[in-house]
What we know:
Mean pLDDT: 82
Shape: globular
Largest sheet: 9 strands, antiparallel
Structural class: mainly beta
CATH topology of the domain at 51-149 and 326-361: Hypothetical Protein Tm1070, Chain: A
Low-confidence stretches: 1-25, 27-35, 301-382
Amino acid sequence: MRRLPVLIVFGGLLAAGLIVDRNRPAPADVVYGTVSAPVQPVASPASATSTSWFCPGVPAPPDGSTAGFVTMANPTDEAVTATLTVVPSEGNVATRPVSLAAHTTTSVNLAEVAPAAFAAAQVDVHGGGVVVEQSVAKGPLRDPSACATAAASTWYLASGVTTRDATLKYFVYNPYPDDAIVDMDFATNDGRFAPQPLQGLVIRGGSMRVVDITDQVRRRTAVAGTITARSGRVVVGKIQTYDGSAGPEGFTSGIAAPATATQWLFPDGRRVPQVSERVVVYNPGPDPAEVDIEVRPVAPPEGADDAAPLDTAPLDTAPLDTAPVDTAPVDTAPVDTAPVETAPVDTAPVDTAPVDTGPLETAPVDTGPVDTAPLDDTGPSGDFSTIQSLSLPPYSQAAYDVTGDETVADGVHSIIVTSANGTPIVAERITNLVADTGTRGVSSMLGSRLTANRWLLAAGGTSSSVVEELTVLSDGASDTTVTLTAIDPKGNRTLGDPLTVPAGGFVQVRLNDLVQQSPLTVLVEGKAPIVVERGLIFKGQAETSRQLGVPLS
């Protein structure tokens, strides 16, 4: 009987505890980075606890003949810290802490951290809202593109060339401790091809591997690839170079596509002198694909007979300024240059002491603001559009020569690639600048699979010898207003007046007319969903780089 009061007291305390617990406020929702690969790089919301960016590979030789940069932009109002991990193709992994103040952009030359022929990089951010791009630089030229926001089990590349004058390399980065095993399959101008040496490739945990496709898929004028992981997840990128002996000269780089889609959007394009443009479509699956490629010119004024092209003067390479351009695209001062910590290559790429990698396996980022609805085909271009249809058998690739199609209106345009029968595809646009002495600049860009209200372009810049253009493509049945903002720690600045983008149409802005600044990080915000593309033109070099911005959640 003595136990009864004790039980009564204990029961009372338990009940009181339950009452107190009911009155306790609900815990705040925690937002983590994504574990599944989105269809293209998308920045996490500023409220995210942690975010990881994966840059699959850039050159990082110690002699500086070429260089690879990682650029980190923090457009938010809060300072964050990050850990940069550089994984060289040979040698030791190295880590460096990075502080990212609010409204700042920081760039790191990977050769200063872990020099090697090539290197992958990973940026683990304690927070969200940050955008990371990788850049390949050679002399005054640079080719920036977004890094990936997740690893995936399958990656696709629609374009590539392995002719005598060209070199095509794939980068495969495994950011996790366990080994991954991958297979590579190709669709070429000579048919489907799966070289035995590229089956069952082992990518050690925490390492990157450079695969020279030129050695295995030789003398092909068209090479599309599928990289599939039998086990594990990886991140894939490429670099395509031309030596100029057969015409094209230069390089283009970027990540592969982690997913196929039924529609691909290209805000910019042009049929003008000194520019060659084509669209490459890849059908990596077992079903035939019926594809429509719509070229939408600028809508002419009411009553006009022809479409009036935008001013293409930046592309004129006649009297070009040959002054050199500073190859350091972003001020590296904010980077802590203390001695780096090294570890063997076969270890995990991130120092797990300062960086919590747990969130990588949690809930995906909320991409609610991203609208994936197709463009309204009744936009202002109307009957002035050109539609080219392609039929692609399974596991094949085909190209559409926009420049050679005389039904396409002269001037600038946007391009929408759609699978008419619903078979998922991959689409890239190839742009070449043609100088007086022959084809020079080369740029390849995957189309956008998403529209969003806010986009960030981290690694740009304007000067007397570099022209930066922004092209904004609208989605929807009504006009939308767009504003441009330069991100600056001394105070963000609005660039020019608000733009009106017509329904289903596009506008192009030459940033040199609004600001002379390098580096330059630009935030583009629309009242309705849009797609934003950045173009860099290097006057005096007849080179170009064209890539999508990064949607912000």
